[in-house]
Amino acid sequence: MKRVLVATEKPFAAIAVEGIKKIFDTAGYELILLEKYTDVAAFRKAVENVDALIVRSDKATKDIIEAAGNLKIVVRAGAGYDNLDLTACTAKNIVAMNTPGQNSNAVAELAIGLMIYMSRNCMAPGTGNELKGKKLGIHAYGNVGKLVAAIGKGFGMDVYAYDPFIPAGLLAKDGVTPETDVKELYRRCQYVSLHIPANDATKKSVGYELFSSMPKGGTLVNTARKEVIDEEGLLKALMERNDLKYASDIAPDNLPRMKELVGARVFATPKKIGAETSEANINAGLAAAQQIVDFFEKGDRRFQVNP
Ligand code: 3PG
Description:
The chain is an alpha/beta fold. Helix content is 38%, strand content 17%.
């Protein structure tokens, strides 16, 4: 009997866990749940004797992968897989997958919500601004970026996108103006929504130069990863210009200092909540479970992300 560990420090909604269990029951697999663990040692112990692993943002480090004696597959129920040590997985012949697109709508809705929150003075009394008629820049046009663009258009925003991996024709088909230079995107748009993955090429790639080039009232919304931000550069721009705003789904490391220096022009959710909806949990959780069954039963490796 195959044994599957779901290790989620931030658990799936109960309804998603029920669905995951049903998929494994039908396949004749055993589900082991490790939720809300506070000590990584508990994760290391639980992974020792399982064939498959599902995680969210839980860090499947080299240490965890090496402790997993029987592991054949790890699925990140979500989009970003910067929490998986792919080299360690490949070295042990373990297939690593994500579930692209499954939680995108939740993240896209939050990105727009953060834009509204910032443009309405964090819901405090006072005169704000509307999104309608403003320019929205999408920095990376993947599953989430595409949805943010569509919602933005619904709000009457004029949408631009920079993504060197997406043909300009595809953007134009969605009614989005392609930008070939990322600097031009920031220079042009009052709102920029960030959707780049965190990797060696993108870490600290958004900082002073891009942020400080935004037009008056420029608002940067980050529902991607905190690691892609150069926090010192961002703070420098915020201190130089008192019209700039930054909203992030997960606190920057220097949040207390930023708040002290620029107040409500910086906002961060206390814990990452982009994908924290029942719908997203169901979509991503069930997809992860099904991908594991399809891998073992049919050899399906469609969503593999490691070489
Ligand atoms: C993702 O990469 O899918 C999102 O950041 C969601 O992460 P979470 O599963 O930790 O909420």
